[in-house]
Specification:
The chain is α/β, with parallel strands linked by helices. Helix content is 40%, strand content 13%. It is built from 14 helices and 12 strands. The longest helix is centred in the C-terminal third of the chain and has 18 residues. The mean pLDDT is 96. It binds pyridoxal-5'-phosphate.
C-alpha cells in the first residue's frame, strides 16, 4: 500500500524515546521544555507551548484568544474539521469563507467581508503547506481586536514569501501545529502553539494543565486561576519531537524533491499552489482533475492498485453534524470550495518515497485522465 503520507522513524528517534523513558520523569519534565525551545528556535517565534494534539492546540489557542459562546470565528471550509470543531467546543459560531481555486487557501477579501462586531478569531489554514501569507489582513484585524490563529498543521518547515518561517507569527497572534504521523515531524499524537506575546504564552501554559498555577517556591501551593484542561504532551513524546526536529530540514527537502517530480510530470491535471516550491512545506500534493468523474475514478483506481489517494477536503460545512447544526446553505456561499472539493485529489508524498511508487502514482493519474 502506498499511503498518502507517513512518518519516518530512525534509530536516533528510538534512542531518544528510550532515554526519556529511562529518565525518571515521563511527563511534566525537562524534555517538554527542550522540545518547546527547539520549536521556538526552528520557527523563529519567541515562545512555543507543546500540547497533546493539533486539536488541543487549536482549542487552547481559541480559549487564550477569549473566544466564547456567541462569538464568531471565520475559517476556510477546506480544512480538517478540527479547525472549526475547536470553536464549536466553545459554543462559538463558525463562518466559512470561500477559498482561492489556485491555492486552496481562504480568500482574504471574502474573510474580511464576513467580519462583524462579534468576530473574535480568524483562523486561516496554510493548506497543504502553502502559507496563507496575508500581512494586510493581520494589520486590519489587529486594529479591530480580532485574533489571527493560523492553523499551520500542514506547514511546519515552510515559510512566507517574505522569507520568515511559518510559526514565527509574522502574520498571526498564534500559530498552531500538529505532530500526527502524517505531518512533517511526529510525536505520535501531539501539537503546539507558537506566539510572540508573553501574556498569551502564559495563558496557554496555564490552560494546558487545568489552569493551575504552582508557586515556584512553595511547590505545595497550587491555585487554579483559569478553567483549563489536561492537554499535556509527555516527556517521551517530547524527546521524540526533539529528535525529529533535527531532521526537519531533510524531511522538507525530501518532500520538495518528490513535489518537483510531480511538478514536472503532472501535465494532465492542475497542481494546486504550483510554483511556490521554495516556501512550500508540501504536507500534501493536491491536484485538480478536470471533472469530478475523473477524480472519483482515480480514487477507485487507487483502491484497486493499493495507492492511498485522498480527498483534502470535503468542505467542513458538508459534514452531517454541521448540516444538522445550522450550517446548511454554505454550498451556495462557497462555490469555489464546492468546485475544488469535487475535483481535488492528494497524491502520495512523504520523505524517501520510492521512485517506482511515485511512477505508479503518476501512471494511474495519466491513465485515468486518458480514459475520461
Ligand atoms: C488543518 C488541520 N488542522 C488541525 C488538525 C488537527 O491535528 P491533530 O490531528 O494533531 O489533532 C489537522 C490534522 O490533521 C489538520 O490537518
Amino acid at each position: 500500500m502506498i499511503p498518502y503520507s507517513k512518518q519516518n522513524i530512525d534509530a536516533g528517534d528510538a534512542a531518544a524515546l528510550l532515554e526519556a523513558l529511562n529518565g525518571g520523569v515521563i511527563t511534566g519534565g525537562a524534555w517538554v521544555e527542550r522540545f518547546e525551545n527547539a520549536l521556538a528556535e526552528t520557527t523563529g517565534a519567541r515562545y512555543a507551548v507543546a500540547l497533546s494534539s493539533g486539536t488541543a492546540a487549536l482549542h487552547t489557542a481559541y480559549i487564550a484568544a477569549g473566544l466564547s459562546a456567541g462569538d464568531e470565528l471565520i475559517t476556510s471550509p477546506i480544512t480538517f474539521a478540527a479547525t472549526s470543531n475547536a470553536a464549536l467546543y466553545l459554543n462559538a459560531v463558525v463562518k466559512f469563507a470561500d477559498i482561492e481555486l489556485s491555492t486552496g487557501n481562504m480568500n482574504a477579501e471574502t474573510a474580511i467581508s464576513l467580519i462583524t462586531p462579534k468576530t473574535k478569531v480568524i483562523a486561516p489554514v496554510d493548506y497543504a503547506g502553502l502559507a496563507f501569507d496575508n500581512g494586510e489582513l493581520y494589520q486590519y484585524t489587529r486594529s479591530k481586536g480580532i485574533f489571527i490563529v493560523e492553523d499551520a498543521c500542514h506547514a511546519l518547515g515552510g515559510s512566507y514569501k517574505s522569507g520568515e518561517r511559518i510559526g514565527s507569527c509574522s502574520f498571526s497572534d498564534m500559530t498552531v501545529f500538529s505532530f500526527h504521523p502524517v505531518k512533517h515531524i511526529t510525536t505520535g499524537e501531539g501539537g503546539a502553539v507558537t506566539t510572540n506575546d508573553r501574556s498569551l504564552y502564559e495563558k496557554l501554559k496555564l490552560l494546558r494543565s487545568h489552569g493551575i498555577y504552582t508557586d515556584p517556591e512553595r511547590k505545595w501551593i497550587k491555585e487554579m486561576a483559569l478553567l483549563g484542561l489536561n492537554y499535556r504532551l509527555t516527556d517521551f513524546q517530547s524527546a521524540l519531537g526533539v529528535n525529529q526536529l533535527k531532521r526537519l530540514d531533510i524531511f522538507i527537502k525530501e518532500r520538495r524533491r518528490i513535489a518537483e517530480v510531480y511538478d514536472r510530470e503532472v501535465g494532465c491535471a492542475q497542481a494546486v499552489g504550483r510554483g511556490n516550491s521554495t516556501n512550500h512545506a508540501y504536507h500534501l500534493y493536491p491536484v485538480l482533475l478536470s471533472t469530478e468523474r475523473k477524480r472519483n475514478a482515480l480514487l477507485e483506481a487507487g483502491v484497486e492498485r493499493g495507492i492511498g489517494f485522498q480527498v483534502h477536503y470535503f468542505p467542513v460545512y458538508q459534514h452531517p453534524y454541521y448540516k444538522q447544526n445550522g450550517y446548511s446553505g454554505y454550498e451556495k456561499r462557497c462555490p469555489i470550495a464546492q468546485d475544488f472539493s469535487s475535483r481535488v485529489v492528494s497524491l502520495p508524498i512523504y520523505p524517501f518515497m520510492d521512485e517506482a511508487d511515485q511512477q505508479k502514482v503518476l501512471t494511474s493519474l495519466t491513465e485515468v485522465d486518458r480514459w475520461g
